[in-house]
Write a structure and sequence with these properties.
The chain has 339 residues and is of the alpha+beta class. It has six helices and 18 strands.
């Protein structure tokens, strides 16, 4: 039975325990966590929690849960490793560059192939748990970097770091139109769309969500934007950009549409990932180039707005690689011309 211990950060002081868990572990809904509390699967400061209990800064919240029967997938039968995904690995973690159309872990409709399937021999020995090593996710059509844990202790530490916003994820996206102002933040709560349960939306009573953006380059009808997350809601970047009228190009669910012949899919890429190693504390930073199916957009006459990509105050803490914008645009165009 999976188990995790979380420490309540200052920003969560005074929250109900079920809401705290839903905010920290968003892959499970608040309703699910309410059921776990009622089933006596949650402890606060070593005492069994009750519905309505509040958590306070520094509290230890211990939670365990039973995976649904469908989770008893025989992943131990997987013996091969797809090394093409691996950017970095050691005894504690694996960092991967996820391609388009590949889901992170087994789920309905995706029982045969996922990142977890392709790396299963590296991800510990819990064969009944269908998300071994997973601490955060990327949507099926979003490309780029994510980190997985190779054992349950590391998984717990990474989950805590993500909850405390100590794992820094930066994205690149091509969006429709020009965002005004060119740099800013989108602060709007996110919840389930009332009309389409497959979608999320900005809703008054949703969970707090903030996305920061920085326009890197412009061309007629499109912008290349760098984005980072202060929170990690489902579809957050896609929802926020759509809500302000600048949907991600190729994002059909949220109104992005496809430019004919210029793009192979949704133009959202997790290009940089920075965090402290969960075992030794060493600062780590990884950068992934744009996926090859973006190359058609590179032929457009882009004009640089910022001198560099992936540059902000976090660079003082992590050994990150910053790209010169002109170099990025030149390489992007070269890939198209060489195809």
């Amino acid at each position: 039975m999976p188990k995790m211990v979380l420490t309540v950060p200052p920003e969560a002081d005074g929250r109900r325990v079920d809401r705290f868990l839903a905010d920290m572990l968003p892959e499970r809904s608040r309703t699910v966590w309410q059921r776990e509390v009622k089933a006596h699967q949650v402890k606060v400061q070593h005492r069994t929690a009750k519905s309505g209990d509040l958590v306070h800064v520094g509290d230890l919240v211990e939670v365990q849960w039973e995976d649904p029967p469908v989770a008893r997938l025989d992943l131990d039968a997987v013996t091969e490793i797809d090394s093409s995904l691996i950017v970095y690995q050691d005894d504690a973690i694996v960092v991967v560059n996820k391609p388009r159309e590949l889901v992170v872990h087994p789920s309905r409709g995706h029982w045969e192939d996922s990142v977890v399937h392709r790396l299963r021999p590296l991800l510990g020995d819990d064969g009944i748990y269908f998300r071994p090593g997973v601490v955060h996710r990327l949507d099926q059509n979003t490309t780029g970097l994510l980190v997985l844990a190779r054992n349950e202790l590391t998984r717990s530490k990474l989950s805590q770091a993500i909850a405390e916003r100590k794992v820094h994820r930066r994205y690149l996206a091509v969006v429709h139109g020009q965002i005004t102002p060119l740099t800013g933040k989108i602060d709007a709560p996110i919840g389930r769309d009332a009309k389409n349960r497959l979608k999320m939306a900005t809703v008054l009573m949703g969970k707090p969500a903030m996305t920061r953006y920085r326009t890197i380059a412009l061309t007629a009808g499109y912008s290349l934007v760098q984005l980072s997350l202060d929170t990690g809601r489902t579809h957050q970047i896609r929802v926020h950009l759509s809500a302000i009228g600048h949907a991600v190009v190729g994002d059909e669910l949220y109104g992005g549409g496809h430019p004919q012949g210029l793009l192979g899919g949704q133009a959202l890429h997790a290009g940089q990932l920075a965090f402290s190693h969960p075992e030794n504390g060493n600062p780590l930073c990884f950068t992934a180039p744009l996926p090859c199916d973006w190359k058609g957009m590179g032929v457009l006459p882009w004009r640089a707005i910022q001198q560099s990509v992936f540059e902000d105050e976090e660079d003082l803490l992590y050994p990150c690689q910053n790209w010169a914008t002109d170099d990025l645009l030149h390489t992007w165009a070269s890939h198209f011309m060489g195809s």
